[in-house]
Write a structure and sequence with these properties.
By secondary structure, the protein is an alpha+beta fold. Helix content is 41%, strand content 13%. The chain is rod-shaped, with a radius of gyration of 62 Å. The termini are far apart.
């Protein structure tokens, strides 16, 4: 790719530059042509070998039509994110080295969206700032507008992108819930014969099995026997036996001897006479 003096070109990872002149130089016995680029961001001069233009990714700045395409890309809601930090950083680094403004837009979207949910590392934070600065500087130079105005447009496009992304995620989750339900299969309709509609016979409901008797398992009642305290018997008080004193003399019975009947008859006769 050839450039002319005054062309606005993009030098990857350096930003917008202007070709001030083209000259040949002899270095170590080799003569080759060089582009003198003045980098707009820091007003430095960079020499790029003419033969190495494709190798370093030097390209022309975008035009007005490509600016519209860029803002459409920034707000389309398509964001690719790697969960693995190493894989994500490698892919973003490769995109930054291409010098394509559309690749830098992908880096800007993915890292900005990621920064809303977690804190970025120092290297990713620096890459995010670099991608945003390069996009704003190129668009502002092409559109001949202030960088602050272009930054506001970029921020609005990013917010639209994130809103679309969240809406798509919610739709996908809702669709997954609907498809998870089993489909309802309608019963086939009976054919109509001679204009007579068949009678619809209600499907017999399966017999309902009588409920099983619920046997309540009586819980064993453990009666806690209260300790029976036997009343202690009252001590029997032995009353002293009182001595019985008889005032009458005790009559002692005398033994009466048996009288023979003959003697008794005699005595009776004697008393009678």
């Amino acid at each position: 790719m050839t450039f002319q003096v005054g062309d606005k070109v993009i030098y990857p990872n350096h930003g917008l530059g202007i070709v001030e002149r083209i000259e040949e130089k002899t270095i170590l016995g080799t003569t080759c042509g060089f582009f003198h680029l003045r980098i707009v961001a820091n007003d430095t001069t960079v020499l790029v070998p003419v033969a190495n233009v494709d190798g370093v990714g030097l390209r022309k700045a975008i035009d007005d039509a490509e600016v519209d395409r860029l803002f459409t890309l920034l707000g389309d809601g398509k964001i690719d994110n790697h969960q693995n930090w190493k894989g994500r950083f490698k892919d973003n680094s490769d995109k930054m080295r291409t010098g394509s403004i559309y690749d830098m837009a992908d880096v800007l979207k993915s890292l900005t969206f990621l920064s809303k949910s977690k804190s970025l590392s120092f290297r990713e934070k620096r890459m995010l700032d670099r991608a945003k600065a390069l996009i704003i500087s190129e668009v502002s130079e092409v559109m001949r507008q202030k960088a602050l105005e272009i930054e506001e447009q970029v921020d609005r496009a990013l917010e639209k992108c994130f809103t679309t992304k969240v809406r798509n995620i919610n739709r996908t989750q809702a669709r997954a819930k609907v498809t998870a339900k089993p489909p309802v299969v309608a019963a086939p309709k009976a054919p109509v014969v001679n204009g007579v509609k068949p009678q619809v016979v209600a499907a017999a409901k399966p017999p309902v099995a009588p409920p099983k008797p619920v046997v309540a398992q009586a819980k064993p009642v453990v009666a806690q026997a209260k300790p029976v305290v036997a009343a202690s018997p009252k001590p029997a008080v032995a009353t002293a036996a009182k001595a019985v004193v008889s005032s009458k003399p005790v009559m002692t019975t005398k033994t009466v001897k048996a009288v023979p009947p003959l003697v008794a008859n005699r005595r009776a006769a004697a008393r009678a006479s």
